[in-house]
Structure formats: C-alpha cells, structure tokens
C-alpha cells in the first residue's frame, strides 16, 4: 500500500466538518457521502459504494465531495451522479477516481469520462466533459474543481484551495487537522480571523505568526465569505 493511497484513506473529518469547510447546508455531506433515508425510503450514497453509517470522512471522500459541490447550482439532484461514480470505480479500479488527476486531465481519461456519461445518460447540467471542436474538454464546474485541487507528482489529490480568489489559503489533510490555513504556514484561518475580530491590529497578528499583512487579510476575508455562504 503506497503512502498516497494511505493519504486518500486517511480519516480526516466528521460529516458536519465537511459541510462547514465546503459551505454546504447541514446534512448535505452525509447525503452525498453515506446516503440517507427520506420518508422511510433509503437513498444510496453518491460517493461511498454503500451506506455504512460511518461518521468519519476520509480525505478521498472529502475531495470527491468538493467535486460534487462544484455542481450544486445545477437544478438537477446530485444523486444522479452516482451511476457515473460507480462506473468510473469499476473502469479505473480506483476507490476515489475523481481524486486522481489523470482521470480528468488526460485525453484518455476524458474520453473514458465522456463515454461513461453517455452510457448512463447523465443529465446535461451534471456533465464533466463535453466535446468541442473535436476535443474532449472539461465543463465549467469540472474545471473549477481541477483548479481548486492540488495534485502531487503522482497525480493524486494532496491539497485544496477552498476559494479560487484567495490562493493564499489552502487545506491539507496533514496540517492543522485539515483546517484551512495560510499557504506555507500551519496557522488556521479561523484563529487569525478571530484575533482580528477581537481587535488585534493586522500588523500585530502578521508579526505574531510571521505572515504578511496580505495573508492576514486573505484569512479574514476567507472566514467572512465562508460564514456568509452558510447563512
């Protein structure tokens, strides 16, 4: 078992943390990752192969939840993505196919995704890949996801930028218990924002944690945006 595989299988969050980190309504992560029942009718998960009742979330599951979050604005139930996930797991032999760069960045990977979409008759609003000028290209939500995730040299998800406008902020499962931190530092953005809200000058907070004032402002803005998204 490789170190990368261990990372993807690493229990990193609880369900409520995933909602908080991705700015999702309460209970969304649980529905996507582990399924649920509504009016006595069970709903299969999108990310896990079967309902397990497990509260902890692996890094690989979190990354795939981030992928699904890119399609939240589509007026189509995310559960319709499940056949694609099942098919990709079967075709690639990967438990977390969307946590591997090659499956969305290479021509071979995109051709596979496009074929899977056609086989399962995926809703247009949820498509990952489309054909333009004879080439397989990512749709806007899939492109957003790829720009947000940091892949290591082996092409596996190793980190994530939670806000595309604030590249100074990153999420890494091996730093600060997976909480958002300032890039290249391990100071949680929530800690920085709380000190500024408490009245500490930005310059003092920057000196305390050896950050630039721009990084402090980015952390504060990130926390403000995240709280607004969850209202």
From TrEMBL:
SUPFAM superfamilies: Homeodomain-like. Residues 11-84 form the Putative antitoxin VapB45-like DNA-binding HTH domain. Pfam families: DUF433, HTH_66. Gene3D superfamilies: Winged helix-like DNA-binding domain superfamily/Winged helix DNA-binding domain. This is DUF433 domain-containing protein. It comes from Sphaerisporangium corydalis.
């Amino acid at each position: 078992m490789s170190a990368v595989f261990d990372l993807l299988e690493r229990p990193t969050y609880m369900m409520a943390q995933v909602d908080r980190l991705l700015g999702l309504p309460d209970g969304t992560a649980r529905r996507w990752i582990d399924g649920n029942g509504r009016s006595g009718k069970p709903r299969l998960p999108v990310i896990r192969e079967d309902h397990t009742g497990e509260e902890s979330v692996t890094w690989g599951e979190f990354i795939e939840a981030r992928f699904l979050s890119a399609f939240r604005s589509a007026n189509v139930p995310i559960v319709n993505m499940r056949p694609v996930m099942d098919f990709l797991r079967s075709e690639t032999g990967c438990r977390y196919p969307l946590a591997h760069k090659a499956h969305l960045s290479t021509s071979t990977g995109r051709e596979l995704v496009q074929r899977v979409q056609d086989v399962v008759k995926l809703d247009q609003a949820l498509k990952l890949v489309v054909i333009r000028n004879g080439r397989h290209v990512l749709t806007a939500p899939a492109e957003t996801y790829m720009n947000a995730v940091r892949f290591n040299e082996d092409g596996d998800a190793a980190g994530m930028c939670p806000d595309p406008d604030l590249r100074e902020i990153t999420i890494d499962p091996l730093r600060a218990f997976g909480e958002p931190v300032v890039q290249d530092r391990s100071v949680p953005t929530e800690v920085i924002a709380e000190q500024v809200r408490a009245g500490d000058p930005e310059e003092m907070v920057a000196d305390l944690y050896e950050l630039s004032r721009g990084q402090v402002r980015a952390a504060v803005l990130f926390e403000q945006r995240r709280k607004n998204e969850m209202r």
